[in-house]
Amino acid sequence: MATDFVSNEEIVQAARRNLDQSAWDYLVGGAESETSMRRNRMAFDRIAFRPRVLVDVSKLDPSATFLGQKLRIPVMLAPVGSLQRFTPEGGLAAAKAAAEFGTMQVVSTVTEPGLEKIGAAGGGPKVFQLYVQGDWKWIEDIIHRAKQAGYVGIVVTVDNARYSRRERPMVHGYAPMRPAVRTPAYGGMLTWDLMDRIRDLTDLPFGIKGIATAEDAAMAIEHGFNIIWVSNHGGRQLDHSRGTLDMLPEIVDAVGGKADIVLDGGVQRGSDVVKAIALGAKAVAIGKLQGWGLAAAGQAGVNRVLEIMEDEVLSAIALLGVTSLGRINSSYVCRAEPVSPAHEMSGWVNMPGGRLL
Question: Tell me, what DSSP letter sits at residue 331?
Fold first, then answer.
């Protein structure tokens, strides 16, 4: 049973036993040398806590609010395009898990069984993530469909102007997404002007996913976007980029509280969540952990991933001397040297080098 898992490390190991090589490589791999992916983890590994003591922490509140929706913890399910490779239910299992636990699912354009069926599953709030795959008529249609399906916000992914070289799955011939997504014609044509036109199609909260610099964050604020999503696509697009937690402080400064900031990339533990919130994120999103949970035990596996992260968040804030995540700020963290080499699973002690081949 999923409730038998006591750590997310055990869930990763169970997922490895259940996945074939090509699906595993897609889930755990990054682009080219995988430097960006490892820097995502290193960015978390080199942040230390500065705890305060003699504070009454007998009552704790790890919840947050995003787009007017209460989240049990500020951990959302990131958009992942091939959830159907990890469990037969695909995005339906993730939707049900998010609703059962009490958080938000962000649904990818290319997640099966499609935005309407996933939108109707579970009953929880959902944000639609748009990959631009067609002409203006196609864009108008899919934005209308997302609004009709009850999504509470829309984010457009903008860091996929060209599909990257993800060499782990390439070796096994795994094509994770529909061919249209890998065609650069549409993703490569995105501009600020086109983003404005897409935003004007809806009155839903509108965001941009793939922000990596203060300059682009400032541009997004100038263009009136409500959600700034700090991401390097989990290290799966441009190699040799910075870790997302390293990007966060300058982006927070550029945003100046004028939009909600989401961060993904390398989040593996509740302590990572606390670090991101301390440095200015409103919420984080998990992709790999979501996939591992689905592969380990379907809907129940994802729910257990979130339960474990919640317990880790509660431990972290109690031992930091704060009663809620809303009280966390940058005074509770500082830079420190990491104690082990960064890799895609360095959040767990029994996975030296991250090699679960």
Answer: G
pLDDT exceeding 70 applies to what percent of the chain? 94
How would you class 273 by CB atoms within 10 Å of its CB: exposed for 0-12, middle for 13-18, buried for 19 or more?
Answer: buried
Q: What was the pLDDT predicted at 353? A: 53
Average pLDDT over residues 281-294: 97
DSSP H helices in 6-125 = 8-18, 21-28, 35-45, 91-101, 115-119
Instruction: Name the catalytic one among 223, 233, 240, 343.
Output: 233
Domain boundaries, the chain: 2-336
Residue carrying structure tokens 């040799």: 240
pLDDT in tens, 95-151: 999 999 999 999 999 999 999 999 999 999 999 999 999 999 999 999 999 999 999
According to the model, what pLDDT value does residue 258 have? 97
Helix, strand, coil tally for the chain in percent (to 5): 45, 15, 40
pLDDT at 254 over 80: yes
Query: What is the distance between the alpha carbons of residues 17 and 292, in angstroms, rounded to a whole number?
Result: 11
Q: Which residues contact 10 (CB under 8 A, 6 or more apart)?
A: none
- Is 144 an active-site residue? no
**Which one, of 232, 214, 171, 305, lies nearest residue 40 by Cα?**
232
Q: Rounded CA gap, 36 and 265, in Å?
A: 9
The token duo for 131 is 């990959």
Q: Provide the total of helices (H) and of strands (E) in the chain, helices listed first.
A: 14, 12
* Closest to 282 in 3D by CA, of 262, 309, 304, 254: 262
CATH superfamily name and code, 2-336? Aldolase class I (3.20.20.70)
Contacts of 262 by beta carbon, 8 Å cutoff, 6+ apart: 66, 76, 207, 209, 227, 228, 229, 230, 281, 282, 283, 284, 285
